[in-house]
Amino acid sequence: MISVNSAQHRSWIPFATVFIALVLQVIPTPELIRGFLPDWVSLVLIYWALALPDRMRLSFAWVAGLVIDLVTLGIPGVHALSNTVLVYLAKRLSLRVRAYLLWQQSIVIALLLGIELILFVVVDFALTGSLGEVHRWTAVIVGGLVWPLVYLALRRSRHLANLGR
Amino acid sequence: MVKSRDGVVRSLGPYLLLSAALIAAYLYLPSVRTVAQSAAVIGIPIHFLASLPSTALKGMQGHLTTADQLRSDFEAMRQRNLILQARLHRFEFLENENARLRELLSSMPSQAEQVTLAALLAINPDHAALAVMINKGSADGIFQGQPVVDSGGLVGQVTKPSLFFSKVSLITQEDQAVPTQVARSGLRTVVYGSGSGRLLRVPYLDRNADVRAGDLLVTSGLGGRYPPGYPVARIIAVERNLAEAFMKITAEAASHLGRDREVLLLWLPTKETPALQDPMETEEDDD
């Protein structure tokens, strides 16, 4: 890994992107497209876990998940749990996935989001007895489809931040 | 293999335990619940930013409408106001009459409900559950289980009050049930959420029950959670099958389910309201 030491690191940028994703996540949306909107925070966390596996801490994913739970008045710990597992998997896969083409990455991302959803549904079912979240499989597929865009946008932000390779 | 499994346990384990502990604490310790609801204030800037686009759009609409359109809108509203006022006069008359009659019957008068206006902060805060977020919280006296209505009818109930904002579960959520009655016939039944869209389920009506398409279902006030007389759903289709004991009924929610920008929060008058005498009240609402 070649690190760019000459320029100044702006390590607040990943935090800012997660914050923006959080805002996108709670934005009021028309009823029609609601079920298709991907989990923006998950996508952003996956990106940073793939791009900077050594710097990305599980604690960051956990806290981000906790913030989602608090902000949406859900049961605190549910998103924290699913996000941490997601980031762990993304970190483990990072070396392999980074070598993939974008469309191949999309498939992996959709799989990761699917695993996260399954985890989320299981926990939610155990706690509330409702399987309502299963509807979100469409959002998983859309998440895979928009991955290239998310990837390109975040790669630009990473270059801006002077982080990683 | 064994090594990597160790790695999983060591790196992921603490977080899983922490999450599980937090969830358990939240479910079993009321104090943790209070803390979580207070900690939700960190969401205020996030909700504020998220509501900016729709607020800006609303502001832009104001700038882009022409004077002509505003004038015609104003005219339409003035007319509507006149009609509503005329109706209100009649309603006041009926209310007085109702109070008198109740006095004659020496039963408790039904007091007027207290209401508070709240604006919507977010729709479907977690993209999945049929819920909306409103900008009033326990600091404004909002409590869990508080009924929420809009111009169309019943929207749902407050399920998660936080300090400055709260989550409202819509009646279309699968686990929501509203005691209702048919406005026309007074027949009582329970309406359940369908879990998606605007549709509601009315599962337990006998196949000979007096219900037809177009009937309005209003809250019956039974159960004491929702005040009586608010529209809940309109029946779209009734399917009678001789082979089955119950009818298959499709109903659509009467309210806009949080598509309005504002909703009303209701305070039930007092605890000792006689919930069982409500059928009389709803009849008068109807015409």
Please describe what this structure looks like.
The complex is a heterodimer of chains A (165) and B (287). Chain A contains seven helices and no strands. With 165 residues, chain A is mainly alpha-helical. Chain A has one domain (12-24, 32-161). In chain A, helix 1 (12-26) runs antiparallel to helix 3, helix 3 packs across helix 5 and helix 6 (102-128) crosses helix 7 (137-161). Chain A starts with 11 loop residues before the first helix and ends with a helix. Chain B starts with a helix and ends with a helix. Chain B has three domains: 2-63, no CATH class; 65-104; 177-286, Rod shape-determining protein MreC, domain 2 (Thrombin, subunit H, Beta Barrel), CATH 2.40.10. The model of chain B is unreliable at 272-287 (pLDDT under 50). Chain B is built from five helices and twelve strands. At the A-B interface, helix 1, helix 4, helix 5 and helix 6 of A face helix 1, helix 2, helix 3 and strand 1 of B.
Major sheet description of chain A: none
- How many beta strands in the DSSP annotation of chain B? 12
Number of helices of chain A: 7
Overall 3D form of chain A:
globular
Task: Describe the largest sheet of chain B.
Answer: 6 strands, antiparallel, barrel
Q: pLDDT average of chain A, as an integer?
A: 84
- Please state the overall shape of chain B, judged from the principal axes of the Cα atoms: globular
Secondary structural class of chain A: mainly alpha
Spatial order of strands in the largest sheet of chain B: 1-2-5-4-3-12
Radius of gyration of chain A: 16 Å
Mean pLDDT of chain B: 80
Which CATH C-level class of the largest domain in chain B is it?
Mainly Beta
Helix content of chain B: 25-40%
Total of domains of chain A:
1
Assign the CATH topology of the largest domain in chain B: Thrombin, subunit H
* Alpha-beta classification of chain B: alpha+beta
Strand content bin of chain A:
under 5%
* CATH architectural category of the largest domain in chain B: Beta Barrel
How are helices and strands ordered from N to C of chain B?
HHHHEEEEEEEEEEEEH
Instruction: Indicate the percent of residues in helices of chain A.
Output: over 70%
